[in-house]
Amino acid sequence: DVKTGGKVGKYISVTNDHRGFPIGHMPAVPGPFSLEMVWRPTNLRQTGIVFDAYDGSFKFTTNFQINVGNTTDPYFEITVQTKSGATTYNNVLTIPLDGIGPRSYDWWNTEQHHVAFIVGGGVMQMWVDGTLPSGFSKPVIGNLNSSGGLICFNSRSLNPTGCEINYPYLLTRGEFDEIAFYNQILPDNLI
């Protein structure tokens, strides 16, 4: 659904009726990469995919695990494949939402936030509202190992030209706006 009244006007509202769709392609050659969006997850009650690149270079998921005793462990997980020379590395940045501020599910659920994800220059980072919270960064070797793969929004990538659109259990429900991908590292003054 397209709604009005977001931070910058209209925005996408993902509900149970939403179906994922292709949103673009990763850079055709390995190098630095950035993603930015305005986002408010509204339901982290299950594992959901936000973005999934067919070439395996980038995946961003939300996760909600129910433990024995009905305690919960919500977290974000960002997976990128980097390459340096002939060596390929799989990097995972897990951000538990078990604290306060940006490390709290309740903080995320209250309003839309500007998010910038960066990989390159030896790091992968997730900036929130212009700041880099503790635990939202990880060193990596090399740059993103992308080859132009299809990027699916709120669905799994199935093949070079298609996304799985009829599987609502993979949805990351919420509000999304101003989604943009860059084949460069965003400078600090634009984050």
Structure notes:
The chain has one helix at 105-110, and strands spanning 2-6, 9-14, 21-25, 33-43, 48-53, 58-66, 72-84, 87-96, 113-120, 123-128, 137-139, 143-144, 150-153, 157-159, 162-163, 173-182. The chain has 191 residues and is mostly beta strands. A seven-stranded antiparallel sheet has the order 1-2-16-4-9-10-11. Strands 3, 5, 6, 7, 8, 12 and 13 form a seven-stranded antiparallel sheet that branches. Strand 5 and strand 6 form a beta hairpin. The two termini are 27 Å apart. The mean pLDDT is 81.
β-sheet strand percentage: over 45%
The major β-sheet equals: 7 strands, antiparallel
Secondary-structure element string = EEEEEEEEHEEEEEEEE
User: What's the Cα radius of gyration?
Assistant: 16 Å
Low-confidence stretches: none
Shape designation: globular
Count of runs of 4 or more consecutive helical residues: 1
N- and C-termini, Cα separation:
27 Å
What is the compact description of this entry?
By secondary structure, the protein is mainly beta. The protein is built from 1 helix and 16 strands.
Q: How do the helices and strands line up, and which of them pair or pack?
A:
Blueprint lengths: L1 E5 L2 E6 L6 E5 L7 E11 L4 E6 L4 E9 L5 E13 L2 E10 L8 H6 L2 E8 L2 E6 L8 E3 L3 E2 L5 E4 L3 E3 L2 E2 L9 E10 L9
Antiparallel strand pairs: 1-2, 2-16, 3-13, 4-9, 4-16, 5-6, 5-13, 6-7, 7-8, 7-12, 9-10, 10-11, 14-15
Task: From the structure above, extract its key features.
mainly beta, 1 helix, single chain, 191 residues, 3% helix, 16 strands, seven-stranded antiparallel sheet, globular
